[in-house]
Amino acid sequence: MDRSDAVMAMDRHATSKIRVASDLIGVATYGFRGEALPAIASISSLVLETAPTTDNGTPAEATRLVVEGGRLKDVAPAARQHGTSVTVTRLFFNTPARRKFLRSQASETRATVAAVSLLALARLDVAFKLTSDGRVLTDAPRVSNLADRIESLFGRSVAEGLIAVEHHAGPVSVRGFIQRPADAKPSGRKALLFVNGRPFRDPFLVRAAESGYRATIHPGSRPTLFLSIGLPGDAVDVNVHPTKQEVRFRDRWLVERAVEEAIRLSLGDMGSAAVVHDPLGFARGPVSQRAQPHDAAWPRDESPIASLFAPPGAGTGAWQATGAPLERNFLQVFDSYIVLQTPEGLAIVDQHSAHERVLYEETMSQLNGEGSPSQRLLLPLTVDLEPAELEAIERNGDMLTAIGFEVEGFGGRSVVIHAVPSPHPRFDARRCFEEVIADLSRGRFGGWANQLERFAAMYACRAAIKAGQALESREIRTLLSRLFACELPPHDVHGRPTIVQLPREELERRFGRS
């Protein structure tokens, strides 16, 4: 700024962006009333140094302003490069009644770090550095992508556990990063939202994002979210909160649905599958390069598993280019895991978790009206139950019937099972029925809010093939085919991964080939 503008900037509303009332609709700047700088100067000692440039690009004469408690004390020439610096000291020196309400230094420092972090996430083109008592608390250089900024602010371990989000729904766009379900914990999460570059808070949007995680995380776990929402300026009102921490959407339902869909689609992509971490410290390249959507390790629409079960000659791609017989593309180890070669490395599938995901989604379809074919028993099963378990059968009879169990009272504490589901050849109908009824009577999976989802997760857990069961090649092929036909193949219903990826580059580093 030149000298006259610098002096004027100390007056309230001098830098207001509002000329007519209609300017309040679609405000695109962080502040628009022109109050921030004079308001800060009124309760502190403030020094402003600024220097414009001339028409030929050379620095013009700089100006130094000193303001004490809102009063302009000094205006003088200064020596500095192009730009503006604002230094604030003695905060609330002239308003002791407000100063005594400040929290402890540690609390105020944490609040300052949080505020700077929000600004740094919103403006990737600006470098931020925060020091306190000689210690650097935040050092965020300018970056070109959000992944690198997250890493600089919160560390590599946080950044490595994130997957990319990018989704468009009409005028609404949702971009950013979310935490892998397996890394979500009940505490310590970060839920940071931005709309058109402005940080804001909205518990309902956070809840919509968590709805996208349904049946992938353990109830009570709270995933970390870094989400940026874009939409036309006139579709959001940013002038509804004194500190601009809240906004109001013209069509809230549209935005919430877009956020939920964005989360769901990202979790269904194979790039969201867990990746083997590197305990020996080998660098695997910048987080930003590994986390972007186009670097997803296994795009859903080009899944090599899909070509694995396609008719001979029906597909193309790197998977089939290997020319290896299909029977050699997977291997069961420890009678619990299936090792599968992919174009990018190895995928390790947990057979129980994978089958649990398959059965959960199939059971949800059955409970929502499709029903399940039953297998009639030549010799009905008679099961003795506790009173609480008999009550559980009465409460959940419709759902038991929907998944294929045909149960009839036999007098006293006994029931007779005439028909059972048949989710796989190794299914132990009696054991599964007894375990499901015991879970229902004891309130297991009680954290699930939706009754159908709770029942489906319970049944899937009990009916799935177990770790330690040897599988034939045909059974493995069928399981993989059904898994990759699911909506969310990389995650089971407890928040554990069904698939862990081991990148080829990691193998080559371990063997000294790169």
Which term fits the overall shape?
elongated
- The CATH class of the domain at 146-274 turns out to be Alpha Beta
Number of strands: 21
The largest sheet has its strands arranged as 7-8-11-9-10
Largest sheet: 5 strands, mixed
Cα-based radius of gyration, to the nearest Å: 30 Å
CATH topology-level name of the domain at 146-274:
Ribosomal Protein S5, domain 2
Task: Compute the number of helices.
Answer: 18
Q: What share of the residues lie within helices?
A: 25-40%
Strand percentage: 15-25%
Measured between the Cα atoms of the first and last residue, the distance is: 53 Å
| Low-confidence regions | 278-286, 293-328
Secondary-structure-based class equals alpha+beta
Assembly level: single chain
Describe the structure.
Among the domains are: 3-102, Heat Shock Protein 90; 146-274, 2-Layer Sandwich (Ribosomal Protein S5, domain 2); 373-420 and 427-463, MutL, C-terminal domain, regulatory subdomain (Ribosomal Protein S8, Chain: A, domain 1, 2-Layer Sandwich), CATH 3.30.1370.100. Helix content is 33%, strand content 23%. It is built from 18 helices and 21 strands. It has helices at residues 3-8, 36-41, 96-99, 105-122, 146-154, 156-160, 203-212, 252-268, 287-291, 304-308, 318-321, 351-370, 387-395, 397-403, 429-442, 451-463, 473-483, 504-510; strands spanning 45-51, 62-68, 71-78, 83-89, 128-132, 135-140, 162-169, 172-179, 191-195, 198-200, 225-230, 236-237, 248-249, 274-275, 330-333, 337-342, 345-350, 375-384, 406-409, 414-420, 499-503. The strands form six sheets. It has a five-stranded mixed beta sheet with strand order 7-8-11-9-10, sandwiched between helices. Strand 15 and strand 16 (337-342) form a beta hairpin.
